[in-house]
Every structure is written in C-alpha cells, then in structure tokens.
Design brief:
Layout (H helix, E strand, L loop, with lengths): L5 H30 L24 H10 L13 H11 L1 E3 L7 E5 L14 E5 L1 H25 L7
Helix pairs in contact: 1-2, 1-4
C-alpha cells in the first residue's frame, strides 16, 4: 500500500471541495446568463441584496436540475451527471472516521434512519484514499468543464474556466 500522508489527504480533500464550490458557482453564473440577469456579486457588508441565481438559496440538486433542464437536445453532451449530487451530499452530510488519526479515512452516508431508528443501508460507503479522491476531483472537474463548454458555445461571457 502506498504511503498517504495527512498533508496529501488535506490537499486532495480541499481540491475536491474547491471543485464542488466551483461547479455550484459556475452553474449559478450560467443560469444568470440564460435568464439575462446581470452578474452582480454582493459586496462585503451588504445587508440587502436582489435575489438572483447567484444569491438564491437553492440546493445543489435544484441547481443541477435547473441547469440540465435548460439544455436543448443538441446540448445533451453538456449535461451534468446527476450522481454527483450523492457524492457531494455524502461529503457534506456523511460521517468520516478512521481506526487511526491518519488517512485513509472512511466516509459513510445515510441521511435518514428508518421508522425503527435504525440505519439499514448506507447510500455511500467509500474509503477516502489517494486513488478515490483523485478520481472524484477529476470527475467533478469534468462536470465544471461541461458547463463551461456549453456557456462558451452559447456565447456567455461571464464564464471562462
């Protein structure tokens, strides 16, 4: 087994989270462009802002669904794979643990127990090793590139990743 340091784990985990945030934000920019809404980012200290796709409280599920529904049949190649939602939710809401305070760690996710208060099956159960995290960083980045390519094809100016 390859040595996997805590510093390497932190960098990979940060890279994955950075990609999740980038995907969410690029979809928000895309939706603004699609709706013809000017891109206005809130300034630090703003207490009142206009609700736009950038500022609207929307889940990643809702954003990806809205983006995918906005694509024409000729744009199907730019569709964001919906299994990314479960991956993101596992990292956002799952439980990370290890037998020692060093990687690789394990991530489990099952959002809601059954009526008896037991968790019957996990919807996500993975070892967070170098290979797995590297693959997921690349997967999320591929989704970012799809949104970026679609925006470019449509001539949207605010998105250039």
């Amino acid at each position: 087994m390859t040595t996997y340091t805590y510093d390497e784990y932190k960098l990979q985990l940060g890279g994955l989270w950075g990609n999740f945030h980038t995907l969410e934000f690029i979809i928000r920019l895309f939706l603004c462009e699609k709706m013809g809404i000017p891109i206005r980012l809130p300034k630090q200290g703003d207490f009142s802002i206009e609700v736009t796709p950038i500022t609207k409280h929307t889940t990643i599920n809702g954003l990806i669904g809205e983006y995918n529904k906005s694509l024409s049949l000729k744009e199907e190649e730019f569709k964001v794979e919906e299994n990314i939602i479960g991956l993101r939710n596992a990292f956002a809401h799952g439980r990370v643990f290890g037998l020692a305070p060093l990687p690789p760690f394990r991530l489990l996710n099952k959002p809601v127990p059954d009526k008896a208060g037991k968790i019957q099956n996990f919807d996500f159960d993975e070892t967070l090793d170098k290979k797995f995290l590297g693959e997921k960083i690349d997967f999320v980045y591929e989704q970012i590139q799809k949104v970026s390519a679609c925006a470019k094809k449509r001539g949207y100016k605010s998105i250039d990743v």
